[in-house]
Amino acid sequence: MSHKHTDAQQGAQAAEMFEPDSWDERYSGAETVWSGKPNPQLVTIVSTLSPGTALDVGCGEGGDVIWLAQQGWQVTGADFSRTGLDRAARHAAAAGVADRVDWWQVDARTFAAQGRSFDLVTTHYLHPPDGGMVAVAGRLAEAVAPGGHLLIVGHAISPMFEHLTESHRRAMFTSTDLLDALPAGFEVLVAEDRPRSVVRDGKQVDIADATLLATRR
Ligand SMILES: C[S@@+](CC[C@H](N)C(=O)[O-])C[C@H]1O[C@@H](n2cnc3c(N)ncnc32)[C@H](O)[C@@H]1O
After folding, report:
1. CA-CA distances (angstroms) from residue 31 to 34, 63, 91, 92?
2. Tell me: the pLDDT tens digits for 113-159?
3. Distance between Cα 79 and ligand 1 center (Å)
4. What angle do CA 173, 201, 13 make, to 5 degrees?
5. 186 CB under 6 A from ligand 1?
6. How crowded is residue 212: how many other Cβ atoms within 10 Å of its Cβ?
7. Are 199 and 208 spatial neighbours (Cβ–Cβ below 8 Å)?
8. For the chain, what is the domain count?
């Protein structure tokens, strides 16, 4: 392994990944960043729910938003990257679901429901720094309507991520880390780190999705 960067440089690069400018830059490139396919835990879990209103926080290019809209949900896609939201809106229009979606520029770290509530609040692979997902989970829970669901999925620590910087790894979480963040009145339905295989650089690797599903009574 080459060591082209000092620890301080790596730390600065990692810190940039937690701010909107670096995501705006990624989403302004010619190529799409993500596959456009819905995330597997979303498909597995949401297929058991009746459609209603949904909020997807950290929606990126809108793959999950579009899939939810195609299943009959009325969806708000939220992200702190304006460029990401604009691209997601173009993808939704191309998929013919523009009338079932709207967009909300928010920073999850300071998210406030502002009186809005949703039958499903979902987020996939949003990793605020320094274990920040615990506090974010509490904020997102406030936006769940009575009888609604909160679904949080992220990368659980696994050997595959050992090469990442310390600050990247501190941004990962396990499903049980999030339990204390749930306000009273939530019932936990799933709290598991679900194994999943992905292909990276032509090789199959095993990872796990930290998955929390809870419902508001
Ligand atoms: C790894 S991508 C995942 C995108 C999408 N959920 C998916 O699974 O394809 C993380 C997304 O979260 C957004 N994001 C990161 N930190 C955020 C924050 N503090 N508030 C809102 N969005 C954030 C990024 O702009 C990016 O679109």
Report:
1. 9, 15, 13, 17
2. 999 999 999 999 999 999 999 999 999 999 999 999 999 999 998 77
3. 6
4. 50
5. no
6. 27
7. no
8. 1
pLDDT at 2 over 50: no
Joined tokens for residue 11: 């730390």
- Domain extent, residue 186, equals 3-216
CA of 190 to the centre of ligand 1 (A): 22
CATH number for position 125: 3.40.50.150
Model pTM? 0.93
Note the pLDDT of residue 4. Answer: 44
Pocket test for ligand 1, best of 79, 110, 151, 152 (most atoms within 8 A of CB): 79
Q: Is 196 in the pocket of ligand 1 (CB under 6 A)?
A: no
DSSP per-residue letters across the chain: ----S-HHHHHHHHHHTTSHHHHHHHHTSSS-SS-SSPPHHHHHHHTTS---EEEEET-TTSHHHHHHHHTT-EEEEEES-HHHHHHHHHHHHHTT-GGGEEEEE--GGG---TT--EEEEEEES---STTTHHHHHHHHHTTEEEEEEEEEEEEPP-GGGTTS-HHHHHT---GGGGGGGSPTTEEEEEEEEEEEEEEETTEEEEEEEEEEEEEE-
How does pLDDT run across 184-209, given as a tens digit for each residue?
999 999 999 999 998 888 999 899 99
